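Journal club side-thread
Mid-discussion, someone asked how the predicted structure for our own chain would compare to the paper's figures. Pasting it here so we can look after the session.
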Amino acid sequence: MFTPLTLKEKIQLQAHKAMCQTCNAYETQSKLIDALIGKWFAADSNKKTSKLDEEKKNKIIEEIKKS
């Protein structure tokens, strides 16, 4: 997600993901976590804080458990 893959790596990853449900679940959860954290940090940027409160941490955990 954070670094570009070579063509060979992309093919290897796609082949692996075609067989591995665990990796697909991990990818889905990772994207969800990134989106939620990005959303909450953007909302908190006006407050000049970068610390998640307990309520937000619990919401992230709840969303992960749903997927």
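Post-session note: The longest helix spans residues 21-44.
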